[in-house]
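Question:
Now give any protein.
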Amino acid sequence: MALRNTTFHYLLLFLQLCLTICISSALNSISTNQTLSGEQQLTSEAGNFTLGFFTKSNSSSKFYIGIWYSRVSKLNPVWVANRAIPVSDKSKSVLQISQDGNLILLNQDKSHIWSTNATISSNSTVAVLGDDGSLVLRDENNSSKVFWRSIEDPADTWLPGGKIVFNKTTGVSQKLISWKNSENPAPGLFSLELDPVGRQYLLKWNGTETYYKTGSWNGEIFSGVPEMRKSYIYDFNYVDDPQQSYFIYYVNDSSMISRFIMDVSGQIKMLNWIDISQEWIEFWFKPSTPCEVTRLCGAFGSCTEQADQSCSCLRGFSPNSEEDWNLSDHSGGCKRNIQLQCNKFFQMSSVKLPVNGQSLQVGGEDECELACLSNCSCTAYSYSTNCTVWYGELINLQDQYSESDAGTLQLRLNAAELPSSNSKKGTKGIILGVVVGAVAACLVCVTVLWILIWRRKRSKLITASKLVEGTLTAFRYIELQRITKNFSEKLGVGGFGSVFKGVLPDSTAIAVKKLAGLSQGEKQFRTEVSTIGTIQHVNLARLRGFCSEDSERLLVYDYMPNGSLDAHLLHNTSHVLSWSTRYQIALGTARGLAYLHEKCRDCIIHCDIKPENILLDDSFVPKVSDFGLAKLMGRDFSRVLTTMRGTRGYLAPEWISGVPITPKADVYSYGMMLFEIISGRRNTEQVEKEGPAAFFPRVAARKLIEGEVLSLLDPRLGGETNEEEVIRACKVACWCIQDDEAFRPTMGLVVQILEGVQEVNMPAIPRSLEVFSEDDKNIVFFSDSSSSHTPQMNSATSNSSQTKSTSSARSLTREE
């Protein structure tokens, strides 16, 4: 009997333990007399989110109470309670309901360090973690009586269903504030808030200085963020009523994990989680480059877009805190390595000059330099047509700046920081310079005499050309007739006219395009040509000049000896482009388009990207040509839309659907062209012979998922290729041709992927590539929610939402 009682007793203990484990594993709330500490956690009912103590560094003893994704392998808190005040011992720290009904956090010393601070009108409250990621403090007996929500008190993450509110009664704007660095959730310097006087959001530095605006809400998008567009996956809405105004968004696909963050880089980012790669990828981000973020690199730091590390210290300076810089927090800036004693200046060319410079009236550059040297607080000067000096810290300096307003900065340094000079070598240099100068003088005299004779002989061939804004030559029509031998050597014919070869008097070969079908006035034509003429990039065809006489409109470009890409790629020629050359052509073209979209003063949409418009110089460096011709038809995108430009087979779906055109239309065309670079044939070449199933982008998408990408390669290459580059290019092409333009990458991101700076994830299959199988009762499509990524057969009468989920595009890349 005693044995039986003992066994029964242990059985009861075992059942009690199991019940405790089951209850604790399903716990999603904290009520009165309950606490949470140590390794204890709350998990939302469907298991989407977890609440508990966390730390972002294994070596750190700083712990925070936060909420994170349960189904994401990486710890990414979406909300943090004690952002600025961590606890050092999570086992002795307690999260509980206080006597006044608020949720509070006590540290190891039982000091009160965080509270919901809500006005409670209830005898008992409970804190419940919801599947939307929000912790809700409510009446325990009445779920509709809510006193506080974490989703309405955000940290750096804006979850679907949340809102960033401007309270019109109090005049207070809610903020989304970045972390201090990648491991410290304390409030950082960058924030997002609603503009109290405009229907837009503002990005601010330190809560005061606005450095980016989303543009006004027009009912569908913010004008500066076309990526934030309603689609079958995302739903956006802006609410403006007498009490408050706010913007809210939802994710229609419940299988998608998405978040919007105010990043430590000062950029707002929309991120999506990709199960296959187990990575967050950036769906879109603004500003488009880190260097647009004010004070990103701190004092005496310089931003460089071309480098992997966006911030670096100026010569003679080093980071104030190496630890912060390693955690992506550059706001502390840089400090001098050697204090100023014997002063000299170090010249920095092609830089975006710092802000807050002061102009001085001086007689020349020497006086400008002297004015800076004579003031101990002066740290740099710049002289062009006038003198500008800077006192104290240098802010927002950008190195390797390619814009037209780039300048030269003279940075004040200790002489020890500059390269030393040898006096003897200097003396020898002076003597040698005198000798060379004398010889050069004689040569100059002879050269000048020869030039005078040559100009007299050539004066009858071409008159002096006048310059437009110092960059373009305005040719006379009769001059171009002579240069092209009366337009006798035709290079090709395009949609806007014919191109002829010509030779300038200095033997420089040029290409002259005679435009046809343009009905523009003289003033508008010159304005447009002047705009295009200021654009200079190694991967854009250089516009040398123009002609506008009577009804004649001609453009003069550099001559490209290797012709257009289609001649080498899509036609039977003796010269087959190697894979290495093709990849460099794809990369160079992407760089050129990224410059048009993101680097020019005004965004330029090409509208007709195809192999025929990619020219190759003598080294097969690609040059995007015919850019800006859509702008010749007017700057208004809706006007361009009504006169739909482009070539069948490369047109993005939005041209047909009637929505406003963005740079993503070029991205789509680029993706279609990239498929042709891979295969060496037209995308539609086999469709007429073998039917829709032979459409190459569809075949490529299937082969990509099946891991047979090399079978897509142009057979003329004989298998000589870089497999990693082929896979990367094929993934990029699939992302570029997504039906919804919001899912396509920017050309800047395409460049980063092709350069290997960013890794690219497995793309979703665009719905436009879904085709009927031989059995017309079924539709063949690929489900990106399937871990195997194998084709699935579904009835044509399948639920529409099911079809929708299969084409839900995941996001694109992750940083290496």
